[in-house]
Amino acid sequence: MPSTAPHNQAAFFRAKSSDALLDDSLQAALNHAKGGFIKKRAEAIADVDSFESYKQQAQLVKNHTINNLDYYLHLFEQNVEKNGGQVHWASTPEQLNNIILHICERRDAKTVTKGKSMVSEEAYLNASLEAAGINVTETDLGEYIIQLAKEPPSHIIAPAIHKTRQQVEALFKEAHDLGDRQLDRIAELVDEARSQLRQKFLDADVGITGANMLIADTGSAMIVTNEGNGDLTATLPKVHIITASIEKVVPDLESASAILRVLARSATGQAITSYTSLFSGPRNVDDLDGPDEFHVVILDNQRSQMLNGPYEDMLKCIRCGACLNHCPVYSTVGGHAYGWVYPGPMGAVLTPLMTSLKQSKDLPNASTFCGRCEEVCPMGIPIPEMLRQLRNQEHKEHLTPLISRLSLAAYMWLTRHHRLFHWATKLTHWAIRNATSNSIIKTRLLKHWFEARELPLDDEKGTFLTQYDKIIKSTVKGQQ
Amino acid sequence: MDEVAPNASQDLERTSPHVALFVTCLVNQFRPSAAFASIKLLEQAGCKVSVPKAQTCCGQPGYNNGLEKEAIKTAKSVIKLLEDHDYVVVPSGSCTGMITKHYPKLFSDDKVWHKKATKLANKTWELCQFLVEKRKAEIIPHIALSGQKVTYHDSCSCKRELKNTEAPRQLIQKSCKGASLVELKDTETCCGFGGTFSTKFSDISARLVSDKASDIKDSHANVIVSADLGCLINIAGITARQHIDSLGYTHAYEVRHIAEILADNRDAPSMSYNTTSIITTD
Questions:
Q1: What DSSP string runs through A138-159?
Q2: Domain B16-134, CATH
Q3: Contact call for A425 and B25, based on CB within 8 A
Q4: Counting beta carbons within 10 angstroms of the beta carbon of residue B58, is it exposed (0 to 12), middle (13 to 18) or buried (19 or more)?
Q5: A369 and B206 in contact by Cβ < 8 A?
Q6: Is the complex ipTM higher than 0.90?
Q7: Is A208 helix (H, G, I), strand (E, B) or coil?
Q8: Which of B40, B80, B77 is nearest to B57 (CA)?
Q9: Cross-chain residue pair B32–A409, CB shorter than 8 Å
Q10: Residue in A21, A394, A448 nearest the CB of B66
Q11: Nearest CA in chain A to B65
Q12: Global confidence as pTM
């Protein structure tokens, strides 16, 4: 992954997560956000008769599409062309960037507005456009904030969730000419962003948006937003480019509805987002508005490698972010610690698969296997099982520390040799009580445990099996 | 109710089934009193209890850390050890889940062993769930905790893998007369133990368990119980550290395995009163 590798910081999860725990503003922002998403989702689900049946229908759609992915992608392409648009295929992020650069150069584009697109984040598209001298403006409020802060998103649906209101205010004060105006309230911050962005929408030569779904049957891209920025980005400029990935295709509008029913409820706890827009090609002769050109760039970036393998279910992910919102680890350290564009449980699976397991080997281990991600996933993706598979792969490829591989192997061997196992438990019992070895346990072996916690002591009379054995023997003796 | 044809498992519910207690490696090492309490509860419920001597560990540490082949070998030895009993009862949701949910998965490519694993999975139960669902247990009420506030911490494995949240609460209410069962503000979130996670990412784990400790404090509970020793070691560890006095003793909470309070078997000191800190190494 030449274009992603230099940015991929996933190797540093351990260090970055430790820093995150000590970052007061980050912790304030995370605490502020904590619970909000969870509560709203729970309420939205309680509001419908059977969310489980919604989930089942959405999963049926995705299963069917993933099993016939080539057919639907081809159908989508045909229908986009029928509508007068063009589909471009990109196997790698570089190809995606080059295709888009080429379109921009051909139109002599100077300014680009962007709606939120995780695929473009995956390709570092902004950096590539800016390097070519094109002025890029993110128009989703969260994306706009992190663009000012020169940071990657820390959440797939709430990219600036790691920022406090005060930090946003400071960023706006630095970037905008505010005069004496104060931005004390969130509404004032939103107004300020809106007034800054209005002219950008009008001036843009090219608008780039993502897509939540690609409708094969109609050749349309569906975008769900709450700010309406997607519509302005798509319809005002002369050129509309959509960035999407192969698994975003669905057969028809009915299938799309099945997914919409679970998407917003799982993501923001809304029954449906404020805007659900369909873009189906360039402006027709009798249309009042719309772009002259309509391009859909569809990225693979390792996804086709997941087909028919142990990670295929990951292609059903609809990017709702529920697994992030409910993950105890994500909620404690935030998204940046994960080091790449996809954080949290889904990111801990995707990052190794789409970049390199070696570079992101901490991520599959950064889970308590509490299982809440799988429980809240509207697509029922078995994320813990996939993390376990990745751990298996790490073990096979010797990416784990030698000492832990050896000690685990020794432990597992002992579990099958019960006499030695029990001898070892007795040795442990003794070692906890012996002053020297107790000190080694506390300061070396379990040093990290003891930084925050005590270790409850075992029973002075010995392990259960030792005690039980004595009781059985004395009972037998008594009976004789 | 429809008439259901009698079958072997229903007969077992009526008579005295032969139950193997799989004590788990953590209970064996850290909390023998939980195993003795489990035996007492099972015998009160009319079971013939045996403790297979050759038992060790379900293999989860290897299984969750990439050693799948080793886990398969260990699973085979556990299956061989336990397969001849009517039921296997485990005082842990996590180890029960390993046997009931993960053993069959380990043998998805091996018909013979998959069948054996599934058979064992079908007769393996977490203690509380077994007492309520299979034995409609005669619980012997006691007033030892009368006036106390008891909270039950849901382990993630009990809650999500076994969907077992009601049985332990029912049992507490039935057996601990005069005690009130109080709930933590957030019973959904993991305590941060996660087996080897607690040492691999000890600072994240520590933050999660201190959040749990704040919830415990806010609940005004003074007795904390759970069905999983992993969570209990973690929770006892943090409450001990937070409420330790100059002599190394803590006076905060009584932290125990749920079996101990159900069986009124509280001779062992609370897990948070008795920690390795008591052994001075200076």
A1: E-SHHHHHHHHHT---SSSS-T
A2: 3.40.50
A3: yes
A4: buried
A5: no
A6: yes
A7: strand
A8: B77
A9: no
A10: A394
A11: A391
A12: 0.94
Contact B266/B144 with Cβ under 8 angstroms?
A: yes
**Which chain B residues are Cβ-neighbours of A425 within 8 angstroms?**
25, 28-29
For every one of its 480 residues, what pLDDT tens digit does chain A have, with 9 covering 90 and above? Answer: 333 444 567 678 999 999 999 999 999 999 888 889 999 999 999 999 999 999 999 999 999 999 999 999 999 999 999 999 999 999 999 999 999 999 999 999 999 999 999 999 999 999 999 999 999 999 999 999 999 999 999 999 999 999 999 999 999 999 988 877 888 888 999 999 999 999 999 999 999 999 999 999 999 999 999 999 999 999 999 999 999 999 999 999 999 999 999 999 999 999 999 999 999 999 998 988 899 999 999 999 999 999 999 999 999 999 999 999 999 999 999 999 999 999 999 999 999 999 999 999 999 999 999 999 999 999 999 999 999 999 999 999 999 999 999 999 999 999 999 999 999 999 998 888 888 888 888 888 888 898 889 888 888 899 999 999 999 998 888 776
> Are B32 and A467 an interchain contact pair (Cβ–Cβ within 8 Å)?
yes
Taken in order of first residue, the domains within chain A and their CATH numbers are 5-305 (3.40.50.10420), 406-479 (no CATH)
C-alpha torsion B272→B275→B278→B282, nearest 10: -130
Radius of gyration of chain A (CA): 27
Q: CB of A20 within 8 A of CB of A370? A: no
Closest CA to A313 of A255, A260, A252, A389: A389
- Bridge partners of B256, per DSSP, are B225
Nearest chain A Cα to B25, which residue? Answer: A425
| Closest CA of chain A from B6, distance in Å | 33
CA distances for B44 relative to A444, B47, B86, B197, B262, angstroms: 44, 7, 17, 37, 11
**Contact flag A455-B271 (C-beta cutoff 8 Å):** no
Using the CB atoms, write b or e for A130-162: b if 16+ within 10 Å.
eeeebebbbbbbbbbbbbbbeebbbbbbbbbbb
Sign, Cα dihedral of B254, B260, B266, B267: negative
Contacts of A432 in chain B (CB under 8 A): 276, 279
Q: How many helices (H) and strands (E) does chain A have?
A: 24, 10
- CA–CA–CA angle A391, B156, A458 (5° rounding): 90
Other CB atoms within a 10 A radius of the CB of residue A324 amount to 29
